[in-house]
Model the fold of this input.
Amino acid sequence: MARILIAEDNPTNQKVVACLLGKHGYQTFVVANGRQALEALEESSYDLVLMDVQMPVLDGLEATKLIRKDARWCMLPVVGLTAHAMAGDRERCLGAGMNDYLAKPVRTPALLETVGKYVPQPEHAGDRTAGATARAAGARISRSLSGGRE
Ligand SMILES: [Mg+2]
Done:
């Protein structure tokens, strides 16, 4: 099962992203800052890291730079999560060594599409209808929980 590390300090965003990915068959692990993300990578292996840019202790850009300096993780896909689609965000994320980035609030189709570029989407449990229902539920959760503080 594909393992995704979510580094995000906002509890609501942690839940939304973990829930959406979990519904689509990904195994998720949540940490709250860049330092914890590096510690998690030391302890276990992951297929992809979703990295919030703004976090306490060690932010996502600095954490990604450290990840890229380590030969063990130089090929590890890192996808940034940015608070606003601000001018320059893309350049900052990619410049730090991220493969990609998503603007928050994260929407289900964009999240699945971007993660799926780097980690094959696991097979849905159940049939197509069940999968569509899960996706619709995920979209509702995403809408109802979005708009919290970054
Ligand atoms: Mg943050």
Q: What stands out?
A: DSSP finds six helices and five strands in the chain. Residues 6 and 143 are 20 Å apart (CA to CA). The longest strand covers residues 3-7. The chain has one domain: 3-145.
